[in-house]
Amino acid sequence: MFELDLRSRKPIYEQLVDKLKELIINEILKSDEQLPSVRTLAQQFTINPNTIQKAYRELEMQGFIYSIKGKGNFVNPSSKKADLEKVEKVKKELEKLILEALYLGISTSELMDLIRYVDDTKRGGGKDD
Question: CA 121 → CA 13, 18, 77, 118, distances in Å?
């Protein structure tokens, strides 16, 4: 399904969260599709099941998956309306922060560099993955 870098400074559970989010966002994992069990992933990657469980809990808190007791974890069907509302909220927050940064003297080019840095390193295509 995907690989983890056990030598990375990034915690394994965060790598799992990022990889699974990427698969969900890119619709490789479909709505209501069951995720591999904690035990299966733990055996596949030879890592502690608690690490897998922590990643699944984080994904559930972020709304990417849901769990059914005794059945497993499933991809949460994305609600387009909720997503659009969330995007608008984030845009408004970003606008306030950008205005504050400009007021404090951060240049437009510095802000653009920061956006590129975050895009390169935090979206799954980064050097630390």
Answer: 17, 12, 27, 5
Q: Are 63 and 87 contained in the same domain?
A: no
Asked if residue 6 is part of any domain, the answer here is no
User: Tens digit of pLDDT for each residue in 69-109?
Assistant: 999 999 998 755 556 677 888 899 999 999 999 999 999 99
Q: Which residue has the tokens 């808190």?
A: 61
Count of CB atoms within 10 A of residue 63's CB? Answer: 13
The pLDDT of residue 91: 92
Amino acid residing at 127:
K
Task: Determine the residue type at 74.
Answer: F
Is residue 2 situated within a structural domain?
Answer: no
pTM summary value:
0.63
